[in-house]
Amino acid sequence: MKAFNLPKITFWRAVAVIIVMTGLYSTFLRFSTGLQQTALKDSFPWGLWIGFDVLCGVGLAAGGFTICAVTHIFNIKQFKPLTKPAILTAFLGYVLVVVGLLMDLGKPWNIWHAIIMWNFNSVMFEVAWCVMLYTTVLFLEFVPVVLERFKLYTLQNILKKVSVPIYILGIILSTLHQSSLGSLFLIIPTKMSPLWYSSLLPVYFYLSAISVGFAMIIFEAFLSARAFDKELELNLLSKIGFISVIVLGINFALKMIDLTFSNKWGYLAQLDQASLLYILEALVGVIIPFFMLTSKKVRENKKWLYIASCMIVGGFIFNRLNVSITAVSNGTGIFYFPSFNEISITLMLVVLGMWAFRLIVKNFPVFNEPVRS
Amino acid sequence: MIKQKALLFDATQCVGCGECYSACKEKNHNPETSSDYLKDHLSANTFTVLEEYKVKDKSNNELDVFTRKMCMHCQEPTCVSVCPVGAFTKTEFGPVIYDGDKCLGCRYCMQACPHKVPRYQWNKTNPVVRKCTMCYDRVSKGLPTACSEACATGATLFGDRDELIIEAKKRISENPDTYYPEVYGLEDEAGGTNVLVLSPVPFDQLGFSQLPKQPLPTLTKQAMDKIPGVVGVGGVLLTGMYWLTKRKNQIAKEENKKNN
Q1: In contact, B77 and B32? CB cutoff 8 Å
Q2: Nearest residue of A to residue B124 by CA position?
Q3: CB pairs under 8 A, 24+ apart, for B197-200?
Q4: Which of A25, A32, A35, A323 is most exposed, with minimal Cβ within 10 Å?
Q5: Over the stretch A90-126, which tens digit does the pLDDT of each residue have?
Q6: A73 touches B: beta carbon within 8 Å
Q7: Please, which residues 165-204 of chain A have a Cβ atom closer than 8 Å to chain B?
Q8: Alpha helices in chain B (DSSP H)
Q9: Which letter, b or e, does each residue of B82-109 get, where b requires 16 or more Cβ atoms within 10 Å of its Cβ?
Q10: In this complex, do B84 and A125 lie within 8 Å of one another by their Cβ atoms?
Q11: What number of other Cβ atoms are within 10 A of residue A161's Cβ?
Q12: Which of B12, B245, B238, B230 is nearest to A177 (CA)?
């Protein structure tokens, strides 16, 4: 029998505990006194929780469906070692999105209403259904790992037989709601900065999700390699980096064509807060990583591949916050900055996600080689 | 067919007495929110407000204009379209109403409303969205709205929408110098509204939103209409791709065997 050891107190563990305690206190405040604990107001009803916890959460979890498409639909089996961790992150990501949504909803106990009260005109209705179904799909995609751990091979074999339809369903559901998160904003043309408003928003949201999904796989691989002291599959990762940046480039080219045809370059030349943020988003999140990763030398270098993927992830987060906050703030003239409680709950969710990932990876065969730690 | 009811607000007739504001508060049992009704703003406890604007008329004279703000009861309401659980309804005779028991509290209605009308109970633990209902309960019994009943000058009129449109156009043609020659809410404001407005100056000078002509729900509908296509084409493509690549791998394996 193993002796029970108290976990060692390290700096990051202490930080994590403080973040979670603060987040729990904010959660208590939010549910005991209502949404007045946020900086949200009648003129600015969607803030950090929708912009980051939901829009970024869903997007950053896109690696789950993109890698499934590569390994199981395009049958490029060499990428298989990357799938299980990507599916796990995606599943945890969606669980966190739902928790974040429960914080944001005024009446979270009514969330199940979307199942029985239908409105086919509502993009939100479609997103609700897709997220619900896709979280189930992700669970089914990950559960074989759990079954293997407990040696339930019969169940595992049954799931294996339906795995291809499940993967296909997952890809379709992801395509629908990743793009629909952009469609949410189609209905507010008068309330958004023209720099970000476009009838192509669903296309931009979809392509950027694909790109960031791959970038997240690289990012996580680096973190896991460091945390669990395991080898990095650099040759696979640099290929993934290349796919990511090509999709990123296509998305950016579309945006530039769109800006040209809708005559919006003038808004960029204004050099006000919105246009500067737009330029920064393009520069840090797209242009620089694009030139980095299209160079073979850079993307086969461990350190630079990691930096470039961090830039893509950062640029993605920046884009979602710009669409949901900067653009709306610019279009309505209303200032918004998240309250302490909004920030602390968001940080808590991020920490809980990382902690859950660590816990599951240590106890279940997620990585192909066993974790030494 | 049931005739649609509407309100006609004529800013040239309004003296800013505030009777509509008080009548609305009383009818909806809303608590007092401001000591000066001209400085109040729409909130979860205030469904209509009076605003004062200093503008210049056609002959460049300074003009004091009072205008009302309230739910416009759109012909094709954005709130009805965006609500995931269908908590908003456009009733057959005009008013747009809301059912707090269905609501999740996602606030997409507030985010999407082009007139910036729905308000939230930010300080409640079981909050609902609040806005003018065009006195739905009274109107369904054949009564006028509380605000129009209280209006002494006839600035707020209640009646059948088509008759009010005729009246509004008549006023403009009889007094072309008094009015800006358009009716706000006729059809050019995102498909029109059931609250019609007449003004001496262009409407944006009184704080009314300038909107695209087409009803806003068509913008999301165009995207939603593509869903069946994505599912169908996506399903076929992915299945085909799976089958093709699997076959390719098999052939490659067999050839490998042969060569060895």
Answers
A1: no
A2: A34
A3: B197/B8, B197/B9, B197/B10, B197/B11, B197/B67, B198/B8, B198/B9, B198/B10, B198/B11, B198/B12, B198/B168, B198/B171, B198/B172, B199/B11, B199/B12, B199/B65, B199/B67, B200/B11, B200/B12, B200/B55, B200/B57, B200/B63, B200/B65
A4: A32
A5: 999 999 999 999 999 999 999 999 999 999 899 999 9
A6: yes
A7: 168, 171-172, 175-176, 179-180, 183-184, 186-191, 199, 202
A8: 19-27, 78-82, 108-112, 136-140, 146-150, 161-174, 217-224, 227-259
A9: bbbbbbbbbbebbbbbbebebbbbbbbb
A10: yes
A11: 8
A12: B230
Residue-wise pLDDT for B23-49, tens only, equals 999 999 999 898 899 999 999 999 999
Residue owning tokens 């806005």:
B131
Report whether A174 contacts A65 (CB < 8 A).
yes
Of B81, B103, B231, the CB nearest to A121: B81
- The amino acid occupying position B170 is K
Closest residue, chain A, to B129 (C-alpha): A106
DSSP, residue by residue, B27-45: HTTPPP--SSGGG---BTT
Rg (CA), chain A: 21
* Residue pLDDT, tens place only, B208-245: 988 999 999 999 988 888 989 989 999 999 999 899 98
Q: Cβ contact (<8 Å) for A175 and B230?
A: yes
Task: Please list every residue in chain A whose beta carbon sits closer than 8 Å to the beta carbon of residue B221.
Answer: 121
CA distance B7 to chain A (A): 25
- Phi, psi (deg, nearest 5) at residue A92: -60, -40
Q: Are B223 and A180 in contact (CB under 8 A)?
A: yes
B47-79 pLDDT, tens per residue? 999 999 998 877 788 889 999 999 999 999 999
The shortest CB-CB distance from A106 to any of B127, B219, B231 is to B127
Tell me the C-alpha distance between A302 and A308, whole Å: 10
Spatial separation of the C-alpha atoms in residues A88 and A67, rounded to whole Å = 12
> CB distance from A231 to chain B under 8 Å?
no
DSSP string, B142-157: TPPPHHHHH-SSSSEE
Query: φ and ψ at B185, to 5 degrees?
Result: 100, 0
CB B105 within 8 Å of CB A110: yes
**Nearest-angstrom CA–CA distance, A298 and A308:** 9
CA A88 to chain centre: 13
Output the CA torsion A213→A17→A355→A127 (10° steps): -50
